[in-house]
Amino acid sequence: MKKKGVGLSITPPKKECSDDKCPFHGRLGVRGRIFTGFVTSDKMARTVTVVWPRRLYVSKYERYEKKKSKIKAHNPECINAKKGDVVRIAETRPLSKTKHFVVIEVVGKESRKELLKEEALQEAEVVEKKKGIASEEAEEAKEARGDKKKSKSERK
Ligand SMILES: [Zn+2]
Hints:
It is built from 2 helices and 5 strands, in the order E-E-E-E-E-H-H. The protein has a 5-stranded mixed barrel with strand order 1-2-3-5-4. The chain is 26% helix and 35% strand. The N and C termini lie far apart (50 Å). The chain has 2 domains: 18-110, CATH 2.40.50.1000; 111-156. It is of the alpha+beta class. Zinc ion binds at residues 17, 19, 22, 24-25, 76, 78.
């Protein structure tokens, strides 16, 4: 019988594993939100810390504040993400007191470009969804984002 997989367009890992909390080889289902971030710690057993940047609009100053999200995610043996990897994580049922995400894919190794590309894609999706409700705000965010990217590429 074919396993149901994660229900996302993601290529399953080549390695097999016997981890019950693996979305590919165990019985763990994923639902909810998906994020892409860096692994900043792989010191815990089968757990990694994933961090990714986000921006918060501060209306008083009409500027964006840089913030970051830090989340613990389960790291199945077949994926075995290491520190510095860019990974995609998906929400699951609570796996422990502080863990309710699982690593579903290693996108690249310390490749910041790829992460930014991924981020831009996600942002675009959100903007598309928001358009109906707050089109002006979304446009503004998009513009600010574009400007930021431009300046980044110029610097390189
Ligand atoms: Zn597995």
